[in-house]
Amino acid sequence: MAASVWQSHFFATICQLVVYNDSKLARFTPMANPNWINKLKTRWGVTSDWQVFIILIVFACTGFSVLYLKKFLLPLIGVTPETSGWIRFLASIFVILPIYQVVLLVYGFIFGQFTFFWNFEKRFFGRLFGRKSPKSESESSENQNTSQSSK
User: Fold this and answer.
1) pLDDT of res. 144
2) Whole-angstrom Cα distance, residue 105 to residue 125?
3) 20 or 12, which is more confident
4) Out of 34, 66, 77, 126, which could bridge 131 as a Cys pair, Cβ 3.0 to 4.6 Å?
């Protein structure tokens, strides 16, 4: 469900509706200079629009592949459509989440973005298990130094 919300938001963000003044025809066209790409480049620490595009393609391929694999993997562990919703949900989380991470790294390798996705995985699991990333630790030490010097 979360993937479909993200995908619909992504599609709405990529395209803008261009309405011609003389006629009431409308068509979708790509945005000329999308600001969201620059925000992603800054957030992810990448340098080119092309790299952002490749990363988004990797996320899309991973999502579709995992959804495809899910219908084969869950019955292998005994989860069927007749199984309780809570059990299906928990099985999906505990089975699909690790598989998603592995498939993400595989697609990242195929598309030449393995380093980015390896660092992405490290940050994800650090947040998942409550560990601070090295970046946030250095920021917190800078904040402590600043507060000590101002006293």
Assistant:
1) 53
2) 14
3) 12
4) 126
Of all residues in the chain, what percent carry a pLDDT higher than 90?
A: 30
Residue 23 lies in a domain: no
DSSP per-residue string spanning 81-122: TTS-HHHHHHHIIIIIHHHHHHHHHHHHHHTT-HHHHHHHHH
Residue whose C-alpha is closest to residue 100's, from 62, 52, 68, 128 = 62
In the chain, how many domains are there? 1
pLDDT in tens, 47-97: 988 999 999 999 999 999 999 998 888 889 888 888 888 988 898 888 888
- Residues contacting residue 79 through CB under 8 Å, at least 6 positions apart: 87, 88, 91
Provide the residue range defining the domain that includes 55. Answer: 37-130
* H helix or E strand, kind and range, residue 54: helix 49-76
Specify if 142 maps to a domain: no
Residue at 14 is within a domain: no
In a domain, 50, yes or no: yes
Nearest of 105, 134, 106, 131 to residue 120 by alpha carbon:
105
pTM of this prediction? 0.62
